[in-house]
C-alpha cells in the first residue's frame, strides 16, 4: 500500500461501501488515499451486504452517529433511492444513487456521481463536451448516468446505442424530456458522424469481447472514451488508436468521482 492510514480515534468519521460481491471494489483504496491527501480524519470500509438485507442494514446505519456517508455499487444502485430521504435532481432523473450523505439528524441524501465524474474526467483530460455530437454505447446504470451528465454538460446531439434497443429508447426519451435542446436518437450505425464516442457497456472487460460499436467507422476526427477501467486499453481504445482517433481511458471517471463523493459526504 503506497499510503498510510492515519490513526483512527473516537473522533474519526466512518464511511462504508455497500456492495455484493465486494472483493473487487477499488473504492476503499481510492477514498482512503484521498482522505490521507486532504488530511480528512475519516476511514472508508467495505460493507458486504446482499440485496435481501439491504433495507434492514440501511435502517440501522441511520442511527450510527459517527457514520458520515456511504458509497453504493452493484447490485444496490437502483434500489437504494427508495431507502433515501431525499435525492439530488440528477439522482432523481437517472433513477440511481451511488453516494449517500448521512446528515446529522440521521436522514440520508442520495446522489449519482458516475456521470458527472465521467464529464469531469473528460475535462481533466482537456476535453470539453459542450456542443459535441456524441454516440454512447449502453443503456445500463453507467450509461444512464453518463447520458444525463453529458446532456447537462450541453452536448448538441446524442445517439444512444444498446443491444436491447428498448432500453436505449427509454433512456433517450427520459433524457429528451429533461433536456429538450439535445437531439436524441438510437441509431447505432451513426458512429462516423460522432465527434465523441463513449463505451459504457461492459463489453471490453474481456479480451475476446466484440466491440460495442462498429469499429470500421472510427476515424481520426474523433475522441473515443471508455467507462471500463480494467483493462486500461480495451479493444475499442485499441481500434480507436489504429484509426488515428484520440483516446480517453476509464480511470479518470473514478478519480474525478472520488473528490465529488468526498464533497457530497461532507469530507472535503
Ligand atoms: N470508470 C468508472 O468509474 C465506472 C463507473 C461505473 C461503471 N463502470 C463500468 O461501466 C460498465 C457498465 O457498468 P453498468 O453498471 O452500467 O452495468 P449494467 O447496468 O449491467 O449495464 C451493462 C450494459 O452493457 C450492455 N451489455 C452487457 N453485455 C453485453 C453484450 N454481450 N453485448 C452487448 N451489450 C452488452 C448492456 O446491454 P443490455 O441493456 O442489452 O443488457 C448494458 O447496456 C462496466 O464495465 C463498469 O465497470 C465504470
From TrEMBL:
Ranges of residues in domain Quinate/shikimate 5-dehydrogenase/glutamyl-tRNA reductase: 131-202
SUPFAM superfamilies: Aminoacid dehydrogenase-like, N-terminal domain, NAD(P)-binding Rossmann-fold domains
Biological or metabolic pathway of the protein: Metabolic intermediate biosynthesis; chorismate biosynthesis; chorismate from D-erythrose 4-phosphate and phosphoenolpyruvate: step 4/7
Keyword Iron: no
Reactions this protein catalyses: shikimate + NADP(+) = 3-dehydroshikimate + NADPH + H(+)
InterPro entries registered for this protein in UniProt: Aminoacid_DH-like_N_sf (IPR046346), NAD(P)-bd_dom_sf (IPR036291), Shikimate_DH-bd_N (IPR013708), Shikimate_DH_fam (IPR022893), Shikm_DH/Glu-tRNA_Rdtase (IPR006151)
EC annotation from Swiss-Prot or TrEMBL: 1.1.1.25
Keywords: Amino-acid biosynthesis, Aromatic amino acid biosynthesis, NADP, Oxidoreductase
EC category name: oxidoreductase
Residues spanning the signal sequence: none
Gene3D superfamilies named in the record: Leucine Dehydrogenase, chain A, domain 1, NAD(P)-binding Rossmann-like Domain
Domain of life: Bacteria
Name of the molecule in the record: shikimate dehydrogenase (NADP(+))
Organism per entry: Roseovarius pelagicus
Lineage: Bacteria, Pseudomonadati, Pseudomonadota, Alphaproteobacteria, Rhodobacterales
Amino acid at each position: 500500500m503506497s499510503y498510510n492510514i492515519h490513526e483512527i480515534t473516537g473522533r474519526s468519521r466512518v464511511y462504508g461501501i455497500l456492495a455484493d460481491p465486494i472483493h473487487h471494489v477499488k473504492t476503499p483504496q481510492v477514498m482512503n488515499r484521498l482522505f490521507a491527501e486532504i488530511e480528512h480524519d475519516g476511514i472508508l470500509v467495505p460493507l458486504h451486504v446482499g440485496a435481501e438485507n439491504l433495507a434492514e442494514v440501511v435502517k440501522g446505519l441511520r442511527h450510527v452517529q459517527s457514520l458520515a456517508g456511504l458509497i453504493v455499487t452493484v447490485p444496490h444502485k437502483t434500489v437504494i433511492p427508495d431507502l433515501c430521504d431525499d435525492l439530488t435532481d440528477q439522482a432523481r432523473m437517472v433513477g440511481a444513487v451511488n453516494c449517500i450523505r448521512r446528515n446529522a439528524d440521521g436522514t440520508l441524501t442520495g446522489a449519482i456521481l458516475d456521470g458527472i465524474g465521467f464529464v469531469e474526467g473528460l475535462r481533466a483530460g482537456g476535453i470539453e463536451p459542450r456542443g459535441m455530437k456524441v454516440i454512447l454505447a449502453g443503456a445500463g446504470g453507467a450509461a444512464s448516468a453518463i447520458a444525463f451528465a453529458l446532456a447537462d454538460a450541453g452536448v448538441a446531439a446524442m445517439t444512444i446505442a444498446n443491444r436491447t434497443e428498448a432500453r436505449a429508447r427509454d433512456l433517450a426519451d427520459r433524457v429528451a424530456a429533461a433536456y429538450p435542446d439535445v437531439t436524441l436518437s438510437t441509431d447505432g450505425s451513426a458512429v462516423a458522424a460522432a465527434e465523441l464516442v463513449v463505451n459504457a457497456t461492459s463489453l471490453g472487460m474481456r479480451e475476446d469481447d466484440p466491440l460495442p460499436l462498429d469499429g470500421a467507422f472510427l476515424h481520426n476526427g474523433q475522441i473515443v472514451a471508455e467507462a471500463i477501467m480494467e483493462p486500461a486499453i480495451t479493444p475499442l481504445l485499441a481500434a480507436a488508436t489504429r484509426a488515428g482517433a484520440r483516446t480517453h481511458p476509464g480511470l479518470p471517471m473514478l478519480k474525478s468521482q472520488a473528490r465529488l463523493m468526498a464533497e457530497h459526504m461532507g469530507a472535503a
